[in-house]
Amino acid sequence: MTIDGLSDSDIRTILGETRRIALVGASAKPWRPSHEVMRFLLDRGFDVTPVNPGLAGQAIHGRIVVASLAEAGPLEMVDLFRNSRAVGPIVDAAIRLGARIVWMQLGVIDQDAAARARAAGLQVVMDRCPVIEDRRIGPFRHWPDRAIPPLNAAGDSATSCGVTGRANGPKGGLP
C-alpha cells in the first residue's frame, strides 16, 4: 500500500485527465528537480504555470512565473516542490481556490494537510513524482503529435524528480 492510498488506476486517471498544473516551488536552476519535472510535463502537453514569488515575472521554459497560487488559476492540480513543513498553507490555498488535486512530490509528506484536502473533496497524491509514474504506468501525453522522449541505454528516465527512476526496475519505476 502506498502512503497516499492511491492505486495505479487512480494515478492513471489523475495524469490522464488533468491538463492544468500549478507547479509550486518552480526553479530556474536547470539542476533542480522542479525545473526538470516542469520541462517533462510541458513536453507531455500539460499546461504548467510555475509559481515562485522570488521569480515572479521571469520565464521558465517559456512560461511566465507567477508569485502566488491565486495567480495560477484556474486550478486543476497543484504540484508541490516544497518542504513538507511548508505545504500546509499551500494545500489550504489550493482548497480555497478550487483545485481538484494536490500532488506532493517525492519526500513531501503532510498527513494533516492531506486530510484537510481529502475532507474538502480533493484527491491527494503524496510522496510520488509524475515523471516516475509516467515511466511506470504511462505514458501520459496530451499532444498527440509530440514524441515521447526515449529512455537512456540503462533504462532510466532522462528527466527525474531528484532520483533516477528505473523504468523496468524491480519496484516498477522506483529507484
In short:
With 175 residues, the protein is α/β, with parallel strands linked by helices. The chain has one domain: NAD(P)-binding Rossmann-like Domain (Rossmann fold, 3-Layer(aba) Sandwich).
Secondary-structure blueprint:
Elements: H1 8-17, E1 20-24, H2 33-43, E2 47-51, E3 59-60, E4 63-64, E5 77-80, H3 87-96, E6 101-104, H4 111-119, E7 123-125, H5 130-137
Helix pairs in contact: 1-5, 3-4
Give an account of the 3D structure.
The chain is α/β, with parallel strands linked by helices. The protein has a single domain, classed as NAD(P)-binding Rossmann-like Domain (Rossmann fold). Helices cover 27% and strands 14% of the residues. The protein has a 5-stranded parallel β-sheet with strand order 2-1-5-6-7, sandwiched between helices. It has a two-stranded antiparallel sheet with strand order 3-4. Helix 1 (8-17) packs across helix 5 (130-137). The two termini are 17 Å apart.
